[in-house]
Amino acid sequence: MKKVFLWCCAVIFLSGCATWQKQELPPDELSIEKRIGEGMIEAFSKQKYEEFIKHIPAGGRQLYSKDKFNEEQRQIASRLGKIVSYRFLTKLEMEPAHQLVWAVRFKSYTLKGEENYKEAIFSIVIGKVDESRRVFLFGFK
Fold first, then answer.
1. pTM of the predicted model, to two decimals?
2. Residue 125: enclosing H or E segment and its boundaries?
3. 57 preceded by a cis bond (ω within 30 of 0)
4. Alpha carbon distance 33, 74 (integer Å)
5. Is the pLDDT at 11 greater than 80, yes or no?
6. Please, what sign has the CA dihedral across residues 71, 107, 30, 17?
7. Considering only CA atoms, which of 50, 124, 117 is closest in space to residue 85?
8. Whose CA, among 17, 52, 82, 90, lies 20 to 30 Å from 137?
9. Which residues pair with 86 in a beta bridge?
10. 36 with 129: CB under 8 angstroms?
11. What gap in Å lies between CA 94 and CA 125, rounded to an integer?
């Protein structure tokens, strides 16, 4: 009886493991998409609107104007400070598109002039359109 129980547990455990498969983009595709997101973070940090929207489809560019970009710059700078670094966290499955997520570190100063660091999430939803990658959603959280 004990052997049957152990055998059943092993079958359940192994069958559960077999269904849990991590699906990855080929390394070159993931690195391309990471570079796009990191380019957007860098462009945001340097206040370069044209570079920031480079991978956004035309319709999205019309919705996210330079004025909106500048307003978001002001809001984030007043709330979090200036971007000093970032690190890639993960890619979330959302087939046929997917979401890439970074932790972005900001530096600001207290009223006493002391350095203060905060982090926020930056994410993009990216997919392939006509053999090129496009960013459909993006933002800080």
1. 0.78
2. strand 115-129
3. no
4. 27
5. no
6. negative
7. 117
8. 82
9. 104
10. no
11. 8
Question: With contact defined as beta carbons under 8 Å apart, do 104 and 84 qualify?
Answer: no
Q: Is 124 exposed, middle or buried (0-12, 13-18, 19+ CB in 10 A)?
A: buried
Backbone angles phi, psi at 80, to 5 degrees: -115, -30
Tokens read off for 125: 């939803």
Least Cα distance to 135 among 104, 99, 103 occurs for: 99
Q: Locate tokens 């956004």: which residue?
A: 56
Taken in order 24, 25, 30, 33, is the CA torsion positive or negative? negative
Asked whether the beta carbons of 120 and 106 are under 8 A apart, the reply is yes
pLDDT 10s digits, 68-109: 999 999 999 999 999 999 999 999 988 788 899 999 999 999
Here the tokens at position 21 are 């498969």
For residue 47 the two structure tokens come to: 């206040």
How many other CB atoms are found less than 10 A from the CB of residue 49? 18
More confident residue, 41 or 15: 41
The token duo for 92 is 């979330």
Decide if 124 contacts 56 (C-beta within 8 A). Answer: no
